[in-house]
Amino acid sequence: MKKLLLLVIAIFSLFSCGGDDPNPQIPPIVNAGSFKHNGITYPVNRGYLIPVYGGNDPQKDYYKDRFYLGFSDGTITWGDNYFVVGDDVHQWIDFSLDTSTVNRGTVKDTSFTFATDDDLNPDAARISSANIIYDIVAENGQTVEYINHDANTMSATGSLQLTRLGNGIYKINYEFVDDDGDTVTGSYIGTLTTLYYPWL
User: Fold this and answer.
1) Would you give the distance in Å from CA 173 to the centre of its chain?
2) Where do the H-state alpha helices sit in the chain?
């Protein structure tokens, strides 16, 4: 009986130690996300970033406060002052975000909220506007058909939380009410492709 007990303890110890891998393999994060509007979920597995202005031109100083995030199910590039939508894009959501004064010139991990013009606080991180587009039909980089909804600081409410997870991975969660009174919720986790705006 004693030998049997020792055998059981040995087997248990073998399997317990086997799980303590000193160099565990962390599976790579695959870009994934979606947003929901009017009860319909739209997948978005690609993230895009137009960063803040990092130069010294005083005429572009304002752009040190603002950057843009966008999410789609296909390829987005930047053309002559406009987004170029790939033929593989069916839905797209983007945000114009203002950094807080203390974080000028950075894409900061923080919570951004909509604010009315009566409540604009230059020291707070805020959502300037959001744009939701779906049922997109694109041809040769141009949108032929689409449904569009906007949200701006005059009537929209809600927030966006941006978190850096390291190694170029971001986690973004958002929920807001657009100008039509419809609730939009969504999330994204993955990398962000930088789109180079003319000020960069």
Assistant:
1) 7
2) 2-18
Q: Is the pLDDT of residue 185 over 70?
A: yes
Residue 45 to residue 146: CA distance in whole angstroms: 19
Q: Per the structure block, which two tokens stand in for 35?
A: 């947003």
Q: What confidence score (pLDDT) does residue 45 get?
A: 96
Contact yes or no for 123/112 (Cβ under 8 A): no
Whole-structure pTM value: 0.78
Terminal CA-CA length for the chain: 76
Please tell me what DSSP assigns to residue 155. T
Q: Region 29-56: what's the mean pLDDT?
A: 88
Which residues 6+ apart lie within 8 Å of 3 measured at CB? none
Tally helices (H) and strands (E) across the chain: 1, 14
Q: Is 5 exposed, middle or buried (0-12, 13-18, 19+ CB in 10 A)?
A: exposed
82 close to 65: Cβ distance less than 8 angstroms: no
Quick one: what percent of the chain has pLDDT higher than 90?
39
Q: In this structure, what token pair is assigned to residue 33? A: 């996300």
Most confident of 26-35, 52-61, 66-75, 151-160: 66-75
Looking up tokens 């009860």 gives 39
